[in-house]
Design goal:
This protein is mainly beta. The protein has 2 domains: 152 residues, no CATH class; 122 residues, no CATH class. Helices cover 2% and strands 45% of the residues. A hairpin with a 2-residue loop joins strand 5 and strand 6. The longest helix is centred in the last third of the chain and has 6 residues. The N and C termini lie far apart (42 Å).
């Protein structure tokens, strides 16, 4: 939709380069959620290569944000159509399908809406694409590399609108290579940021099979008096990797270290919205809330 290729886009300094130039302009007064500007988000469509546990193909759209000045709301319509060789596949009930996305967007996050294409018992020789169109962006074509499994040969294939728009991507099928139980990885796991950016004290990493979050805690590379965090998010089905804004603690806090965080597969499921407790070398403690990337110091 606002994407010219499937290559990852790296966000440096709080923006999706060339794709998310988020306005830091004013929103409505406190307590009132204003409508989002088109520059506040990126709308992307995808069809994961993996199928669901029931053998369905799951086309989806994601509304991805970076550094919003305040939460804002969107309300628009998205259509998805399954086509072969430029024509609508008439053997699919409910094709094309329409969904309304009415949601509040938060900083450094996503909102996902998905469909389920089930039970294809026709020819497997089709060159199939999903066409995503919306009232807010240009159309996008995504190749469907695997067709749904044939589960009931006597029944028609169906394209169903999944009813829940979510801030998590748990309706999408899992990529087993992205299943990473929430953990404090050992120091021999390669790190992304340079020591010139952050001297790392520890790190928290989690992947739910669709997206991955990688959080580094430490001190500024050029000033050991300032604690900081660096957060990377990978939205694999939609082809994006983002580095969120660098999160600095007040001068004098010194290096930060994550002391408590969700762990295991259960913790990984909702890791994108997790709260991490930390302590600094100066003795300050607090919470890093990954739902918006905000920091709260205890007693502050």
């Amino acid at each position: 939709m606002r994407r010219s290729s499937r290559a990852p886009v790296i966000a440096v300094g709080g923006a999706l380069a060339c794709a998310l130039l988020l306005a830091a302009g004013s929103h409505a007064q406190s307590g009132v959620i204003a409508a989002c500007s088109p520059d506040d988000y990126l709308l992307a469509g995808a069809v994961p290569i993996q199928r669901s546990e029931t053998g369905a193909v799951v086309p989806a759209v994601s509304v991805i944000t970076a550094g919003l000045a305040a939460p804002c709301k969107v309300d628009f319509v998205v259509h998805v159509g399954i086509r072969s060789r430029g024509h609508r596949m008439t053997g699919i009930t409910g094709n094309p399908s329409t969904a309304r996305i009415a949601a509040v967007l938060h900083a450094y996050g996503q909102v996902v809406h998905a469909w389920s294409w089930r039970n294809w018992c026709g020819t497997l020789r089709h060159w199939v694409v999903a066409i995503f169109t919306s009232s807010v962006d240009v159309p996008e074509r995504e190749r469907v590399f695997r067709l749904p499994r044939c589960r009931h040969s006597s029944r028609r294939s169906r394209l169903l609108d999944l009813p829940r728009t979510s801030r998590l991507d748990l309706q999408l099928p899992k990529d087993r290579s992205l299943v990473i139980p929430a953990q404090f990885p050992s120091s021999d796991v390669p790190q992304i940021p340079s020591p010139a950016l952050i001297r790392v004290q520890n790190r928290w990493l989690a992947g739910n099979g669709r997206s991955v979050i990688d959080v580094y805690a430490g001190e500024r590379g050029d000033n050991p008096d300032v604690g900081m965090f660096v957060v990377y998010r990978t939205y694999e089905p939609f082809g994006f990797v983002t580095r969120d804004r660098d999160i600095y603690l007040p001068a004098g806090t010194r290096a930060a270290r994550i002391t408590k965080a969700p762990l295991g597969k259960k913790g990984a499921a909702t890791a994108m919205l997790a709260k991490l407790r930390f302590k600094t070398k100066s003795g300050a403690t607090g919470i890093l809330n990954l739902d918006g990337d905000s920091v709260t110091l205890d007693g502050g």
